[in-house]
């Protein structure tokens, strides 16, 4: 039954009835400034305009791996990046795969491997160590440290930073703007070839980017010179991680095979920058390669091996999170992204 509540009646001093309202809560009668509530009352739903932290966790055997984004890296117009490739063919490949016809945006998919004994970070992203130069690709880079912490990993917990190579988007977050180590307890693993090349001022020649690239590598690597691991072709870097030389993008570029028994995933770094253009056309040249022709041969050789072995692959610059398989198709290769399990490990 519905009951109708009426105000209580009390007698005033003259015997007249007087209405008494129930007590109001403190602050009642003053409207709070709540834009979201106001929008809802007006029939609108406010936009959040924010994204969650970007990290993805999965397992390989007993190992736990976490892919951590440093943010997207807009490459810009494809013409300068692929100077010897026919523009019409580039456009057709891109549009045929529902991509913008003349521009490319790369991702930056760093990896943290937890073997149960060590935490190994593969590449660091752009960071903020070089001031304005750290934003040479725009404001969307430099997210690794924040995303790493959101994934529950503190930089001080990293035991080894394994670099695929010493370009800005792979090593410039080793230190902060003041030159302090971002990973104070880590060793740095890098090929001796890349260490020598990217810390040698005499290599400041050719493309304009060579000067900031070398200055940034010198600043970031210098802080760890007393705790370096020299990565050698076919040799174990730390238990469970083996480096393989794939020279060309840089002369000392490495890929890393991560293995727990027969369970393997391959971190390919910058073996191929684009999931369509450089897989469908593995012999095309890329303008940021130190030796474009050597890079193309290394790319073809390693992609052929990966397609044959059928190991899962993590590619640094492929669409987030960069995990998938390579399959040989015609004169090139297809990229098959792995499904993401966001429920269980």
Feature tags:
single chain, disordered N terminus, 345 residues, 7-stranded mixed sheet, globular, alpha+beta
Could you explain how this protein is built, in words?
- Helices cover 21% and strands 25% of the residues.
- By secondary structure, it is α+β, with helices and mostly antiparallel strands.
- The strands form four sheets. A seven-stranded mixed β-sheet has the order 3-4-7-8-9-10-11.
- A hairpin with a 2-residue loop joins strand 12 and strand 13.
- The two termini are 53 Å apart.
Ranges where pLDDT stays below 50 over 5 or more residues in a row are 1-20
Strand content: 25-35%
Structure class: alpha+beta
Overall radius of gyration: 28 Å
Shape: globular
Q: What is the N-to-C succession of helices and strands?
A: EEHEEEHHEEEHEHEHHEEEEEHHEEE
Helix content: 10-25%
> Sheet bearing the most strands, described?
7 strands, mixed
Instruction: Give the total of beta strands.
Output: 18
Give a quick precis of the structure.
This protein is an alpha+beta fold. It has 9 helices and 18 strands. The protein has a 7-stranded mixed β-sheet with strand order 3-4-7-8-9-10-11. The protein has a 7-stranded mixed β-sheet with strand order 12-13-14-15-16-17-18. It has a two-stranded antiparallel sheet with strand order 1-2.
Layout of helices and strands, plus pairs?
Layout lengths: L7 E4 L5 E4 L14 H7 L13 E6 L2 E7 L3 E5 H4 L5 H9 L7 E4 L2 E6 L4 E4 L21 H7 L9 E3 L5 H4 L15 E5 H6 L12 H13 L5 E4 L4 E3 L2 E5 L8 E7 L2 E5 L9 H4 L11 H18 L3 E2 L8 E7 L2 E6 L8
Parallel strand pairs: 8-9, 9-10, 10-11, 15-16
Antiparallel strand pairs: 1-2, 3-4, 4-7, 5-6, 7-8, 12-13, 13-14, 14-15, 16-17, 17-18
């Amino acid at each position: 039954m519905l009951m109708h509540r009426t105000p209580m009646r009390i007698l005033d001093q003259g015997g007249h009835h007087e209405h008494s309202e129930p007590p109001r809560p403190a602050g009642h009668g003053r409207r709070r400034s709540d834009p979201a509530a106001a929008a809802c009352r007006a029939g609108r739903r406010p936009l959040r305009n924010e994204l969650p932290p970007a990290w993805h966790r999965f397992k390989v055997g007993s190992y736990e791996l976490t892919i951590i984004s440093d943010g997207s890296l807009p490459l810009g117009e494809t013409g300068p990046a692929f100077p010897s490739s026919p523009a019409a063919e580039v456009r057709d490949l891109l549009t045929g795969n529902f991509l913008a016809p003349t521009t490319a945006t790369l991702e930056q998919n760093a990896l943290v491997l937890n073997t149960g004994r060590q935490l190994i970070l593969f590449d660091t992203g752009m960071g903020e160590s070089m001031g304005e130069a750290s934003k040479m690709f725009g404001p969307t880079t430099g997210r690794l440290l924040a995303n790493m912490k959101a994934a529950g990993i503190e930089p001080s917990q990293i035991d080894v930073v394994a670099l695929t190579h010493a370009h800005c988007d792979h090593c410039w977050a080793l230190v902060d703007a003041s030159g302090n180590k971002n990973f104070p307890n880590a060793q740095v693993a890098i090929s001796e070839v890349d260490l020598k090349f990217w810390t040698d001022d005499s290599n400041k020649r050719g493309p304009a980017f060579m000067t900031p690239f070398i200055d940034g590598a010198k600043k970031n690597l210098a802080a760890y010179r007393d705790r370096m691991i020299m990565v050698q072709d076919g040799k174990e870097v730390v238990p469970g991680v083996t480096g393989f030389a794939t020279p060309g993008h840089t002369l000392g570029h490495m890929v890393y095979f991560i293995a727990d028994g027969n369970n393997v995933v391959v971190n390919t770094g910058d073996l191929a920058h684009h999931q369509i253009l450089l897989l469908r056309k593995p012999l095309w040249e890329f303008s940021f390669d130190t030796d474009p022709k050597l890079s193309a041969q290394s790319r073809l050789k390693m992609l052929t091996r990966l397609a044959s072995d059928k190991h899962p692959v993590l590619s640094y610059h492929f669409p987030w999170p960069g995990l998938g398989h390579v399959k040989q198709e015609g004169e090139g290769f297809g990229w098959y992204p792995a499904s993401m399990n966001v429920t269980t490990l």
